[in-house]
Design a protein that fits this description.
Length: 360
């Protein structure tokens, strides 16, 4: 299989935001730490140190619950400027090794090191060298997974954390797959996992023997992808500089918003903030979206797609405010608001190239 000839590394930084905070403040080192909002203001955990994770604290958890689990939890507000600075350092290390770097977020990326600038014929020495350089240049640790494809490399990077390195060579693929539960498959979250278990699929390898029609009824169009991944096959290439597909801004409020004027002002602000992002990235957008979460946690989204893409702040804000009229804003208390753009087109004006429209 041709994909077995590739050498893919997935690098995942260890508790990235929390680790940056502990690196920069010695008083936080070795302590249970959460990055996020305060428990009294409906804050959530953005990231947790491994010391906090030992108490069950996890990202996206309400901070109030995190403090109940770990009364001695230290809480710091996120500083994304510092996290982005550290991420840029790490990307420079990656790109010094290979131009085939596909960032997934500030703290993880795929690298295709089949041919690399360091002249290393094997991926394992490359992964070790990357981890060492990250530690030397940033003071942070990373875990890495080495495999013939992206699916396996991603699983491998989380196998031994923190500061781990897991290598899945072609001859080890089958033994590795035999160990995995069904929710290790890409695209299988808690809901899909329940559907699969309801038809007797508990382990990843059980997907292979599943009746195709039953599998199709359970998970729809995902069925063929899951069967391919269950065989350890993933032909997706590492795509450097992956195009942006969307951007959004949202906020959870300390007190529910009741006033329609206040809600409109917040949506206007977020929409214009998103338009500023489009301008910085030299992008246009066709679709404007808004998101509302009412006090009872019911969440709704509304979207509008225009024929011509734009980044005009006034137009994007007007469309977002128009979408607000299709909600119960002003009649029901609101705890979260968001505004965003999708269907992005890049002008690439600096290169004299036509833009290419990307759809979600």
């Amino acid at each position: 299989m041709s994909t077995n000839l590739r050498r893919i590394i997935h690098v995942d930084m260890d508790a990235f935001y929390a680790s940056v905070e502990q690196r920069d403040d010695p008083a936080l080192r070795g302590k249970p730490l959460a990055v996020g909002g305060q428990p009294g203001s409906r804050g959530v955990v953005v990231a947790a140190s491994y010391e906090a994770r030992a108490f069950g604290v996890r990202s996206a958890m309400p901070m109030a619950r995190a403090v109940r689990l770990c009364p001695d939890l230290l809480i710091v507000r996120p500083d994304f400027a510092r996290y982005r600075a550290a991420s840029r350092q790490i990307l420079e290390i990656f790109r010094d090794c290979t131009p085939l770097v596909e960032p997934l977020s500030l703290d993880e990326a795929y690298l295709d090191v089949t041919a690399n600038r360091w002249g290393e014929p094997l991926a394992t020495p490359v992964a070790k060298r990357l981890k060492q350089r990250i530690r030397e240049h940033t003071g942070l640790t990373a875990s890495a997974g080495v495999a013939p494809n992206k699916f396996l490399a991603k699983i491998a990077s989380g196998w031994h954390k923190p500061d781990g390195l897991t290598v899945i060579s072609p001859e080890r693929i089958e033994a590795f797959l035999q160990q995995l539960p069904v929710d290790a498959l890409w695209g299988v979250g808690p809901v899909t996992a329940r559907k699969l278990r309801a038809i007797g699929i508990e382990r990843l390898v059980d997907v292979r023997a599943a009746d195709p029609e039953r599998l199709q009824r359970a998970v729809g169009s995902l069925a063929q992808t899951l069967q391919r991944l269950a065989l350890g096959e993933d032909p997706r290439p590492v795509v450097p500089d992956r195009p942006y597909k969307s951007s959004s801004s949202e906020n959870t409020y300390t007190e529910d918003l009741l006033s329609l004027d206040t809600i409109r002002a917040e949506i206007d602000r977020m929409a214009r903030q998103t338009a500023e992002w489009l301008a910085r990235k030299d992008l246009l957008a066709r679709t404007v979206t808004i998101k509302l979460r009412y006090a009872d946690f019911t969440t709704v989204t509304r979207s509008h797609t225009a024929a011509a893409p734009t980044r005009d702040a006034a137009e994007i804000a007007a469309r977002a405010l128009g979408l607000l009229e299709r909600t119960e804003a002003g009649r029901r208390p609101i705890r979260l608001l968001g505004a965003g753009v999708h269907g992005l087109a890049g002008e690439a004006a600096a290169h004299g190239l036509p833009g290419r429209l990307e759809f979600d």
